[in-house]
Amino acid sequence: MPTHAERRLIAYSPSQLFDLVADVGKYPQFLPWCTSARVRTRTADELVADLTIGFGPFRETFTSRVLLEAPNTIRVSYEKGPFRYLNNVWTFTPEPRGCLVDFFVDFEFRSRLLQAAIGVVFNEAVRLMVSAFIRRARDIYGPPPAVPVPQQPVGPAKAGNA
């Protein structure tokens, strides 16, 4: 059962990253293997969407429920499709230099063939997916803002170091 957890400091605000991840309908524009997305219903704090993923000869559609706990957490749970289960959580924590993003995904396909196929490339696929979100942030919000690095105080010169 593939599981992946990742933590990254990203130089955008939590609300910017939250909005980017919550915009499920735009996933096919930038996420590898996401060939289509259809948001069935959406309220301020929840959406239900169908996503189609394709890799190699495989193409699968699944439905997920996305809980939007703005601006800090997005929780994805599985509704219907090729998985036994799917759990995905994004957490956005403000930091002085941007946002600390925690990403967690855990799933299992019903098909042993699909499970074996994804198992070979799973970790690389998840890294590519997280990187795709970072590129999308740059495309939407521009280059990350420059954050000044605090200067270290310069002490008096020590004797004998001239």
Automatic annotation (TrEMBL):
<dbReference type="GO" id="GO:0048039">
    <property type="term" value="F:ubiquinone binding"/>
</dbReference>
<dbReference type="InterPro" id="IPR023393">
    <property type="entry name" value="START-like_dom_sf"/>
</dbReference>
<protein>
    <recommendedName>
        <fullName>Coenzyme Q-binding protein COQ10 START domain-containing protein</fullName>
    </recommendedName>
</protein>
<dbReference type="Pfam" id="PF03364">
    <property type="entry name" value="Polyketide_cyc"/>
</dbReference>
<comment type="similarity">
    <text>Belongs to the ribosome association toxin RatA family.</text>
</comment>
<dbReference type="InterPro" id="IPR005031">
    <property type="entry name" value="COQ10_START"/>
</dbReference>
<dbReference type="InterPro" id="IPR044996">
    <property type="entry name" value="COQ10-like"/>
</dbReference>
<feature type="domain" description="Coenzyme Q-binding protein COQ10 START">
    <location>
        <begin position="10"/>
        <end position="133"/>
    </location>
</feature>
<dbReference type="GO" id="GO:0045333">
    <property type="term" value="P:cellular respiration"/>
</dbReference>
